[in-house]
């Protein structure tokens, strides 16, 4: 019994240390004070069977510079690395327009995050979004495009976030080469709602 006590104490100390570190390093969303009213169209889960993704969707707004927010954390096990982020100021998936859902490509330390394999999607692949009202909205991939992260063009911003008379869902993540302060590209998967 005494032989087991020391290893059990060591494991307990390590687990407690990880918990405390993650709690202390957790960074809150900068727009946490902004509240949005939940609607039946609000996405709750993103499912991409080909990539084995079935993830929670968190609503986000814009940063102080007007860009789509993507919360981060210094905690290795933060839910931000395994969650997707829906831009609440745009269309909801299934509504007319360009709905946008982002996700991180990697987590602190460089380990894979939710959208690590997003670039492997191809034209015709399918995905779906489950809404607050329990409706499953299905989409099909149209194309996968890489854009430079610095100085995005108005054309690129309009294609991803702008108005549309159709029902689109655009998935976005970081891509390219790590520059020390971020990635030099953005990967966008453009999809259209299926009947």
Offer a few descriptive terms.
195 residues; single chain; alpha+beta; 8-stranded mixed beta barrel; Sortase, Chain: A; 34% strand
Write the layout of secondary structure elements.
Layout: H1 2-25, E1 43-48, E2 53-60, E3 84-87, E4 97-102, E5 126-131, E6 136-148, H2 154-161, E7 167-178, E8 183-193
Could you characterize what this model shows?
With 195 residues, this protein is an alpha+beta fold. The chain has a single domain (2-193), classed as Sortase, Chain: A, CATH 2.40.260. Helix content is 16%, strand content 34%. It contains two helices and eight strands. The protein has helices at residues 2-25, 154-161, and strands spanning 43-48, 53-60, 84-87, 97-102, 126-131, 136-148, 167-178, 183-193. The chain has an eight-stranded mixed beta barrel with strand order 1-2-3-4-7-8-6-5. The longest helix has 24 residues, at 2-25. The protein is globular, with a radius of gyration of 19 Å. The termini are far apart. Mean pLDDT is 84; it is low at 7-36.
Summarize the structure.
Helix content is 16%, strand content 34%. It is α+β, with helices and mostly antiparallel strands and 195 residues long. The radius of gyration is 19 Å and the shape is globular.
**Termini Cα gap:** 63 Å
Principal-axes geometry comes out as globular
- By CATH's scheme, which homologous superfamily applies? Sortase
Rg estimate, integer Å: 19 Å
CATH top level class name: Mainly Beta
How much of the sequence is in beta strands?
Answer: 25-35%
Task: Identify low-pLDDT runs.
Answer: 7-36
Number of structurally distinct domains? 1
Number of DSSP helices? 2
Pattern of helices and strands: HEEEEEEHEE
**Looking across the biggest beta sheet, what order are the strands in?**
1-2-3-4-7-8-6-5
CATH fold-level label: Sortase, Chain: A
Proportion of residues in helical segments = 10-25%
Largest sheet: 8 strands, mixed, barrel
Number of strands: 8
Mean pLDDT: 84
């Amino acid at each position: 019994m005494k032989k087991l006590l020391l290893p059990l104490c060591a494991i307990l100390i390590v687990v407690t240390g990880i918990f405390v570190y993650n709690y202390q390093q957790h960074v809150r969303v900068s727009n946490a004070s902004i509240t949005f009213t939940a609607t039946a169209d609000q996405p709750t889960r993103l499912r991409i069977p080909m990539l084995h993704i079935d993830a929670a969707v968190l609503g986000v707004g814009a940063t102080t510079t007007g860009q789509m927010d993507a919360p981060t954390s210094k905690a290795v096990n933060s839910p931000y690395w395994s969650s997707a982020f829906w831009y609440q100021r745009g269309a909801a998936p299934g509504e007319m327009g360009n709905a946008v859902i982002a996700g991180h490509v990697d987590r602190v330390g460089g380990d894979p995050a939710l959208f690590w394999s997003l670039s492997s999607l191809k034209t015709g692949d399918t995905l779906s979004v489950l809404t607050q009202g329990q409706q499953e909205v299905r989409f099909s991939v149209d194309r996968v495009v890489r854009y430079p992260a610095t100085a995005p063009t108005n054309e690129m911003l309009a294609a991803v976030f702008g108005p549309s008379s159709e029902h689109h869902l655009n998935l976005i993540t970081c891509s390219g080469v790590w520059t020390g302060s971020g990635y030099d590209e953005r990967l966008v998967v453009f999809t259209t709602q299926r009947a």
